[in-house]
Amino acid sequence: MKLTIQSPGPLTTVQDLGRWGWQAIGMPVSGAMDAPALVRGNILLGNPDGAAGLEMTMTGPTVSFDGDGAVAITGADLQPRINSTPVANWTVLNVKSGDVLSFAGACGKGFRAYLCVSGGVDVPPVMGSRSTYMKAKIGGLEGRKLAKDDVLMTGEGGSFVVGATCPENLRPDYSNAPLRTVLGPQDDYIKPEGIKTFFESEYKISSSSDRMGTRMEGDKLIEHVKGPDIVSDAIPMGAVQIPGQGLPIVMMADRQTTGGYVKIGVVHAIDVARLSQFMPGSSVRFTKITQEQGIEISKSEANMLNMLRAHVAQAHSRPAAPPVGAGGGHSQQQSGAMNIIVNGEKFFVTWERLS
Q1: Which class would CATH give 179-291?
Q2: Could you give phi then psi for residue 200, rounded to 5 degrees?
Q3: Contact 230/8 with Cβ under 8 angstroms?
Q4: Judging by DSSP bridges, how do beta strands 179-183 and 286-289 pair with one another?
Q5: CB 275 within 8 A of CB 284
Q6: What DSSP string runs through 21-90?
Q7: How is the chain split into domains, by residue range?
Q8: Confidence of residue 326 (pLDDT cuts 50, 70, 90)
Q9: How confident is residue 157, by pLDDT bands cut at 50, 70 and 90?
Q10: Who contacts 262 (Cβ-Cβ below 8 Å, separation ≥6)?
Q11: What is the pTM of this model?
């Protein structure tokens, strides 16, 4: 299909699951802010999980189609319409030449939506990813947000069933539950009362938040032991920096690769995605979890995706695919252990494939 952008919306970009493997040379990961939503749309359409789609913020673009195919709109409910008729989210929708997709705007639940298309959005990959990183002007379409009259092509479509839907219980959680956070790596740089303040305070999302970081506003400041600065080290997804002003910043998809502020904790990636759906001014709280609890959350997400794949397979009227590692000739190793050496220190590491 060919997609023509009649109206771009306030911030619409091409995103996939990110530019992994290049942080060591200073290239941020980028990718979809709500990766679980993008993946679910791709599963519905029979695309690879990481196929590129359009990330739409607050309201979506107006798009006309040349050629026949299908779309699935996931994430926030931006009230989509095809040819002015309201259509469902989380559902495979048929589109044909001449159809026009538009959006009425956010209706109070969520902030970012994803337009997934059969075959994925086909733009030239940069460092293995089609994601747009606007600060460096790379990826996506000329490294920028979409504009009026832009034209995008899709790749070759996979197998899909029009009307197939992601069940309610397999969709991401967009509630305002506290953000689950593992302490560290520099929580000992924060005074004990500062740790208490972090987990007991309610914050508001600042209007200055962006794809790089979600800034918090609040009355109670978090105090450091010896100041906010450290020797710069790696910034993982969801790292919570506490700079000098004493208010948290949660690192998001376009986060920098290294940083020199104390990190009190790391928000689980699933809750980072949920945080990306909160509008500026929304209330946010944090809650403490262990690393083991974080692993269980990741396993639960992997199980939900496998259940959705099985559900889609049933829609094709053929036996559901077995889960990864469930036999049937699947030979990919599912767990293991190894010795690694980091800066001269030896570590024994175990691993387990989640999806």
Answers
A1: mainly beta
A2: -105, -10
A3: no
A4: parallel
A5: yes
A6: T-GGGT------TTHHHHHHHHHHHT--TT--EEEEESS--EEEEES-EEEEEEES---EEETTEE--SS
A7: 2-170, 179-291
A8: very low
A9: confident
A10: 186, 189, 190, 224, 228, 229, 230, 241, 242
A11: 0.89
